[in-house]
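We close this part of the discussion by returning to an individual protein. Part of our work consisted of pairing the sequence of a single chain with a tokenised description of its backbone. No coordinates are needed to read the tokens, only the vocabulary itself. The amino acid sequence and the backbone structure tokens for this protein are reproduced below:
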Amino acid sequence: MKLLTYRLGESLMLGVLTDEGVVDVAAAANGLGVDVPTTPDAFYRAGSSALESMDALLAMNTTPYIHPLDKYPLGPAVPNSQKIICVGLNYRSHADESSMDAPENPILFSKFTNALAGSGEEIPMKTDWATVDYEAELVVVMGREARNVSEDDALDYVLGYCNGNDISERDLQFLTGQWLLGKTPDKFLPIGPYVVTASEAGDPTNMTIQGWFNGELRQNSNTQHMIFSVAQIISFASRHMTLQPGDIISTGTPEGVILGMDEKNYMKPGDEYVVEISGLGRLSNKMTAAPV
């Protein structure tokens, strides 16, 4: 199942992408009399427990409630996570290119919901930001409350996966001992275009992860090269905080970022970055000058 969020006026709507197009979940549930969460917030709060009722809805004739994928702009695939957890230096090659030691434990930091954006959204840059970088990442969407879970059980708590771009302003990132300032400006974590449920997404330890800067392939790796796997990250985080349905974890980026290059030509307005991870679609965003 491919779950997405789209914009209808000022509202964010829940959709499911099928071979025919996008099912308007609210309209279909109302028209067909199915009890299913009909907004993105309600669905992700329910998490994996809502999948059975969603499957029941999709098994019915939803054709009258379908529209083309390109009819409405997409919103963040998960628009209002309680927690946005990111993992730093989770590929040894990226740690090496960043001239940093590979960590002995997962390096966790946070972004906030203001950083979320959808595929196709423009990412605003202030004029004094001269070191904006891209980071293609696999994003995990939690489906169940997780507290002190084992590595063996951790993937059972996952609702699904999507593409992410952990955009970073490097000067701000390293301005202090905390990375926060450079990591969570507005729309600095586009995710999408949709969430693929865990049962369909495949093995998160063996996904090709790629990123194109203005059409040039810059990042080309596989999640098998993570220092800490998705299961290890979930288990580690859940020992220190309770993870809730709808929480997202961005699992780190492989080599190929601008920070690691000899000639550092950072992103500027007009530049585009595209992220594609096995079976998760293509996440595409352009940079734009922020309004004064």
User: Anything to note?
Assistant: Residues 230-238 form the longest helix (9 residues).
